[in-house]
Design a protein that fits this description.
heterotrimer, A alpha/beta, B mainly alpha, C alpha+beta, A: alpha/beta, six-stranded mixed β-sheet, six-stranded mixed β-barrel, 14% strand, globular, B: mainly alpha, binds ligand MGD, binds iron/sulfur cluster, binds molybdenum atom
């Protein structure tokens, strides 16, 4: 079992590291439970029942799991004398496909190891050495809140509210804990620089509406049972969940007769457990394969062109938008009429690494098997020209006639239509008085040169005549996030920017652990986990679900909820009453929300007792699945889309007007990435790297949890053929590097990844050695801060590297 | 996980236990022949002190059992399943051997101080001794047999087919016989050197003892060579068996030839065949040469014994190392 | 006498290890001890065709625990009679009797019994006896997000999943012990193909 990485990590990141057994130590703080804890820890497994009985009553508290992991699940904490001794899931009620149990994954199942992790933060910390040095001193809560409030006031006075920024941070999806409460506090204090786009699917978010005029392009999951074919394009729900139970619905769809094909450079867990076929593809080349499929479909007469032209603009030269009659149509591009390169399967084979026969066969299968689904994951678009693959993936369903029909799928981001969502609960709104927002992925630029950033850099909300933001970011707030260092592109660049205290003057993090981001903060506030406070959470993507999260155990070491931390700061900012609505506790809010849900949606949630006992409620699916764009397909004139033309825009005039046709064409195209195996960069760095979303973690959350490190250790996955060329053996330590940085981690040789591709699961904690080489495997040591050209989204999956034996 | 480094207590227990049983048996045989040639008293003088030296060795063996059992307070639980468990039988037989052999040894030790006639039950004493000796011998053999059966047991065959071969039984008994003989030989030499120095021993006795010792050594060397001969036949047969048994077991040979275990393996081969074998042969040869070669002869006996016991430890280490797990979980 | 057994549909198993950790959590096992483990088994090779790649590989996951054998070899070898087979065929170790001698570990072909350093005893999957005796399901079965697992009387399982078999690679081994585990073979399973355990460090 390789735990070296972790030992390393703990010793480096936490000077007050405790040994493995010493979760007992916290309980000596809690006094009387010390004995119990030691017994529970050591003996319970060996004497599962007898000793448990001897230890007294167990209370089972239904709660949930709501990190940003793709799911939201029910967990049940079994508590004895204030100690969590066991964790189960949503299995005490019938399991009905229309309303399935919300079964937790391996991470939620390990949750008590997170609550009782030995490296939990125990006290507020003030930085004493240079930023990033990891030198901190413990200070009192009062002192910490004073310092934060003073700096907020000072920076607001000196630079204005637009200098205060609360960065994208997704650690807690619960109402009381997490980034939302900080945003609310800052809004009440006069506002803050806002952001738009997220790190998940910026390109999908932006590109989907360019085709369909909306982001709600998805249908209910039960409708997948109507499909005959599901192309799982870079889609890996077995590992990235994509809504609790999504993988289970794929299983049900297969049982109902759908053929499933995974297209992914990795033989993912989905390829093993959910798919009938696996097609490995060179990362970043999906648009080429899709183009060649379109070629086959067009060439072999599978496209009903009248149908396509009835619903869309830009397919062929006869149906171009007004003013663009002479522009290149999609069909002209595919057939090579404009650039002389027909997008044949042979053309695509050289680019994608997929044999031409396979491409042609998949084109035919998708072109003829109706209804069919082409479902895109998000890894395919967190890339250099991520907009293209999304748009191409929206066009193929149009050519195949899969839009607006049961068992079909329009593509794109595919949020489920509104009938299936219920309004959430949360704090009453507090308006942000600052109008500006930046693309979230550009925050380091806004620190470096915010006062020079304007519309061309994606800044929104500038007043008429205002060219740029009035100020750069001077106050960086990071509650429940690891994105100011670990999860952002190009760690080495980021930390150089953060180290310069004249740029960003003050940084605060709330977290449960001393993460790499916390290390770059001036004040670190030790938040309790969401099991130690109250809250409500909702479904991640599909649902719609509400999960109640009452307090399971008292906050350890006197840590506080993010809400309580903000309340202390709000008091010093003079906005305590507004922030807490006159002193409401976490539990008061919780009660208010539960009552609100029961009152407004009693037919779904039942009475409060039922709701609390069950712990969660989902609006069950009905026999009639919701179908996106059904009304538009039935009558396009009466039900126009939200696009400027009201039709599906295969050719987007908006993109044409953007004026960067090489990088942002008006019709979707394959564009060679800037970090590509076909570019000059491949000379020194010949391997493509990706950073998949790993079972071990939700991003960086859970990286330090021992059970998960055992189950899914942090290693680089590499094909045996690439390893042979480099004299690398299974289990060797390897150095993976490019011009941005380097890491040394163990390698796992496997046939389950395409030759030429290395996978370094994203989210490991950046743990530099003395020479700045990361020893844990944070993939962002290798990634770029360069945004995609149109969405200005993150492109952290486009990486070229070299690997050698360390 | 079976890793030889985790099994040192078993290795010690087995090697010392088997050696003790072997020495006990050798003692019996030597005593019978010596008594025939020179009378019971001379036989007692020749062998008894060497027998007593076994005591501490057996106790070390017992201590190793406790070492192997994580909860020594529960060691008696090990006798609960004589019905089906060879381990239970092994421990029971070992314990009984220890007790019966111990009583025998005490009675035998008396001969060094008093004549039987001076003791109570004088008429019965020789018979009691003989009966106890036989019982102890049988228990000892049962112990070695049970120890071998633990590994040879077909119920373990699935996991350690590398052990389910008559070679396992062979090496346990070969070690018993060879180590026992050579160990007793060393004991006899020590005893003789002590007699040489003792002022109370008559010259005639010394002369008789010297002859008895030479004959004993000759016999023991012969036994050792014979035992090695058995190994010489059994080992290749066993390797051939492993080689044909499929991936995991075949690779256990490669492991012995190619990995860090290779040095162990060659040391084992060298020490048992060249070391113990040639030294014993030489010793046998020297027993024909009287006079000046005596001290070299004694050195050879000690040398052969040292080679044999070191080889036994290495051999047993490899025995655990080459156990191949046929299925999951690693060796 | 009933004989309980486990069933897993390997086609539906995604290798997510929820079962492993649910088990670990109930038994409170430390890192290094897993009564249920998930083996990743696969092999094959890649063929280059021009600039393209054709994979000829296969992989599947095999969750495995104690098989509560009908004729368990671990039981008779135990010197302390600590291993019992109950009326439902559950093979359970009474750790109060165990002396940690390892022999059950050695006897089990599937590595089910595991040693506890601190306590110097061996323990293993007890089929969640406390839970099933109380009318519930084993923790691992309840945990599976793919609903790939089942349990029950082995004869009933055989009737319910007629295609299910034992063994599957890499669990192949002697059947005279009567292991009570059934698996629906993965479609990618290649008969006689050279496969290997791909996640040895995890199991
Ligand atoms: N276990 C786990 N689940 C998670 C998360 C987590 O951290 N851990 N995070 C959650 C969040 S916030 C998000 S946004 C989602 C993200 O979900 P995704 O973005 O879909 O997840 P990824 O793992 O990045 O990519 C999915 C698959 O795409 C493949 N892939 C990568 N590049 C390419 C490519 O160029 N072409 C093709 N065809 N395939 C490619 C990868 O091998 C991977 O199997 O996951 C959510 N789920
Ligand atoms: N290279 C690369 N980088 C990526 C991605 C990628 O695919 N490749 N994916 C991107 C994506 S999709 C996303 S969404 C981002 C996610 O990036 P982040 O939003 O930064 O997510 P995490 O890394 O999980 O960090 C969450 C932090 O919150 C803490 N936390 C958990 N619970 C609580 C709580 O209750 N209170 C407080 N105060 N803190 C808590 C956790 O300990 C953890 O440190 O990463 C992005 N980064
Ligand atoms: S990590 Fe996500 S999928 Fe796993 S239990 Fe928690 S919410 Fe569910
Ligand atoms: S699987 Fe192993 S431990 Fe379980 S009953 Fe069978 S032999 Fe015994
Ligand atoms: S380790 Fe315990 S249960 Fe196993 S055979 Fe030995 S005494 Fe019996
Ligand atoms: S039945 Fe219980 S003890 Fe056995 S593997 Fe499943 S969860 Fe673990
Ligand atoms: S929980 Fe289910 S899907 Fe996951 S590894 Fe276990 S059996 Fe397979
Ligand atoms: Mo995300």
């Amino acid at each position: 079992m390789s735990t070296n990485g972790k030992t390393n990590l703990l010793t480096q990141l936490n000077s007050t590291t405790l040994n493995r057994r010493s979760f007992l130590k916290w309980s000596s703080a809690a006094g009387a439970t010390a004995m119990l804890a030691s017994k529970v820890d050591l003996l319970d497994g060996i004497y599962p029942l007898s000793k448990a009985e001897a230890q007294g009553e167990t209370t089972v508290i239904p709660t949930g799991c709501c990190h940003n992991c793709g799911g939201r699940c029910v967990l049940k904490a079994h508590v004895q004398d204030g100690v969590i001794v066991r964790v189960t899931s949503d299995t005490d009620r019938p399991d009905d496909p229309m309303d399935p149990q919300l079964r937790a994954c391996v991470r939620g199942r390990s949750y008590r190891r997170r609550v009782y992790a030995p490296d939990r933060l125990r006290s507020p910390l003030r930085r004493t050495g240079p930023r990033g040095s990891g030198q901190f001193e413990e200070i009192s809560w009062e002192e910490a809140a004073d310092i934060i409030a003073e700096n907020l006031i000072r920076i607001k006075e000196e630079y204005g509210s637009a200098a205060i920024y609360n960065h994208y941070a997704t650690g807690a999806g619960n109402t009381i804990n997490g980034s939302g409460v900080v945003g609310r506090m800052l809004n009440l204090f006069g506002g803050r620089l806002n952001y738009y786009n997220n790190y998940s699917w910026a390109c999908t978010q932006v590109a989907t509406p360019t085709v369909f005029g909306t982001q709600t392009s998805g249908q209910s999951r039960v409708d997948w049972l109507n499909a005959k074919l599901i192309l799982m394009w870079g889609w890996n729900p077995a590992e990235m969940i994509d809504g609790t139970n999504t993988m289970y619905y794929v299983k049900l769809a297969r049982e109902a007769g759908a053929k499933t094909i995974v297209i992914d450079p990795r033989h993912s867990m989905s390829a093993v457990g959910l798919a009938d076929e696996w097609i490995p593809i060179r990362p970043g080349t999906d648009a080429a394969m899709m183009a060649a499929m379109a070629y086959v479909m067009i060439n072999e007469g599978m496209v009903d062109e009248d149908y396509v032209n009835r619903y869309s603009l830009g397919y062929d030269s006869q149906h171009m938008p007004d003013g663009y009659e002479d522009a290149e149509s999609f069909k002209a591009y595919i057939l090579g009429e404009s650039d002389g390169v027909p997008k044949t399967p042979e053309w695509a084979a050289d680019i994608t690494g997929v044999p031409a026969e396979t491409i042609a066969r998949i084109g035919r299968e998708y072109g003829t098997t109706k209804p069919g689904i082409l479902y895109q994951g998000y890894g395919v678009q967190r890339r250099a020209y991520g907009e293209q693959v999304v748009r191409m993936g929206c066009v193929l369903p149009v050519l195949a006639g899969n839009v607006g029909i049961p068992g079909g799928w329009a593509g794109g981001i595919a949020f489920a239509v509104s009938a299936e969502s219920t309004p959430g609960v949360g704090f009453p709104g507090a308006r942000n008085e600052v109008s500006y927002s930046i693309p979230s992925f550009m925050f380091t630029d806004a620190i470096l040169r915010g006062n020079e950033m304007g519309a061309a850099d994606g800044v929104r909300g500038l007043a008429d005549g205002e060219e740029t933001l009035p100020t750069s970011i001077k106050f960086l707030y990071n509650p429940a996030g690891n994105c100011i260092v670990n999860q952002h592109g190009n760690v080495n660049r980021t930390i150089e920017i953060l180290k310069d205290e004249s740029l960003c003057e003050f940084i605060v993090t709330h977290d449960n652990f001393l993460t790499p981001s916390a290390r770059y903060s001036d004040i670190v506030m030790p938040a309790c986990t969401y099991w130690e406070t109250w809250g409500v959470t909702a479904n991640w993507k599909y649902g719609p679900t509400r999960i109640l999260m009452p307090q399971v155990v008292e906050p350890l070491y006197g840590t506080k909820s993010d809400y309580a931390i903000c309340a202390m700061i709000a008091e010093r900012l003079g906005i305590y009453d507004e922030f807490t609505e006159g002193g409401k506790t976490e539990q008061d809010w919780y009660n208010q929300w539960v009552d609100q849900l029961v009152t407004e949606y009693g037919d779904v949630y039942g009475d409060r007792v039922t709701f609390e006992e069950r712990g969660s409620m989902t609006v069950p699916y009905t026999e009639e699945p919701t179908i996106a764009f059904a009304d538009f397909i039935a009558d396009p004139a009466a039900n126009p889309l939200g696009t400027p033309s009201g039709l599906i825009e295969i050719f987007s005039p908006a993109l044409a007007e953007f004026g960067n046709p090489d990088e942002v064409p008006a019709i979707p195209k394959y564009i060679q990435e800037w970090d590509s195996p076909f570019g000059p960069e491949a000379g020194e760095y010949p391997l493509q790297a990706i950073g998949s979303h790993y079972m071990h973690r939700s991003h960086s959350t859970f990286d330090n949890i021992d059970w998960l490190d055992e189950a899914f250790p942090q290693v680089a996955f590499m094909n045996n053929l690439d390893a042979q060329e480099r004299g690398i053996a299974d289990g060797d330590s390897v150095k993976i590097y490019n011009n941005r940085g380097a890491m040394i981690i163990p390698v796992r040789l496997t046939p389950r990844i395409m030759p030429g591709v290395v996978n370094i699961p994203q989210g490991a904690w950046y743990t530099p050695d003395a020479s700045g080489v990361d020893r844990r495997g944070c993939v962002n040591i290798l990634t770029t801060e360069r945004p995609s050209p149109y969405a200005l989204g993150n492109t952290q999956q486009s990486i070229m590297v070299q690997v050698e034996k360390a | 996980m079976i890793h030889p480094n985790n099994e040192w207590s078993l290795i010690i227990f087995n090697v010392l236990g088997q050696m003790s049983v072997g020495a006990f048996l050798a003692f019996g045989v030597a005593h019978i022949f010596a008594a025939r040639r020179a009378g019971v008293h001379q036989a007692d003088l020749l062998a008894t002190r060497a027998l007593l030296a076994l005591g501490p060795i057996l106790v070390i063996g017992m201590a190793a059992v406790f070492g192997h059992v994580g909860n020594p307070d529960r060691v008696f639980n090990m006798l609960s399943n004589l019905d089906t468990s060879w381990l239970a039988r092994e421990v029971a037989a070992y314990g009984a051997f220890l007790v019966v052999g111990g009583i025998f040894a005490i009675l035998q030790a008396l001969t060094l101080f008093k004549k039987d006639e001076e003791l109570p039950f004088s008429n019965w004493l020789p018979k009691i001794r003989i009966a106890l000796a036989w019982i102890a011998a049988i228990l000892g053999v049962l112990f070695v047999l049970s120890a071998a059966m633990i590994y040879y047991d077909p119920r373990l065959a699935s996991r350690q087919t590398g052990w389910a071969h008559f070679h396992t039984v062979v090496i346990f008994f070969v070690d018993m016989v060879m180590l026992g003989a050579l160990a007793l030989g060393v004991g006899f030499v020590g005893n003789y050197l002590w007699l040489q120095r003792s002022k109370h021993v008559a010259d005639e006795t010394r002369r008789i003892q010297a002859g008895l010792l030479r004959d004993s050594i000759k016999a023991m060397a012969f036994v050792a060579i014979a035992a090695i001969g058995v190994l010489f036949v059994s080992t290749p047969l066993y390797l051939v068996y492993l080689g044909n048994k499929g991936d995991r077991l075949t690779s256990s040979i490669l492991m012995m030839l190619q990995t860090e275990y290779a040095t162990h393996f060659f040391a084992y081969l060298f020490l048992s065949f060249t070391g113990a074998g040639i030294l014993s042969g030489f010793a046998w040869y020297l027993t024909e040469e009287k006079g000046k070669w005596q001290s070299l002869l004694y050195l050879l006996v000690v040398g052969a014994f040292v080679c044999a016991i070191v080889a036994a430890f290495i051999g047993r280490y490899l025995f655990y190392a080459r156990n191949a797990t046929l299925l999951i979980g690693g060796p | 006498m009933a004989q309980y057994g486990f069933y897993v549909d390997l086609n539906a198993c995604i290798g997510c290890k929820a079962c492993q950790v649910a088990c670990k959590d109930r038994a409170n096992n430390e890192v290094g001890t897993n009564w249920r483990r998930v083996i990743e088994y696969g092999g094959g090779d890649w063929v280059k065709a021009g600039n393209a790649w054709q994979p000829n590989i296969f992989t599947y996951f095999v969750p495995t625990a104690c098989h509560h054998c009908s004729n368990p070899p671990c039981l008779p070898v135990c010197p302390t009679a600590a291993i019992e087979k109950d009326a439902n065929g559950i093979v359970k170790i009474n750790v109060d009797l165990c002396i940690g001698c390892h022999y059950c570990e050695w006897a089990c072909p599937w590595g089910a019994p595991q040693f506890y350093e601190e306590l110097a005893v061996v323990n293993k999957c007890d089929f969640c006896k406390d839970l099933v005796d109380a009318g519930g399901n084993p923790a691992c079965v309840d945990a599976c997000p793919m609903r790939a697992m089942d349990w029950g009387d082995i004869e009933e399982l055989k009737a319910k999943y007629p295609e299910a078999v034992f063994p599957v690679e890499p669990l192949a081994g002697p059947e005279d012990f009567g292991p009570n585990a059934l698996y629906t073979k993965h479609v990618q399973a290649v008969e006689g193909a050279a496969g290997a355990i791909l996640n040895q460090e995890e199991i």
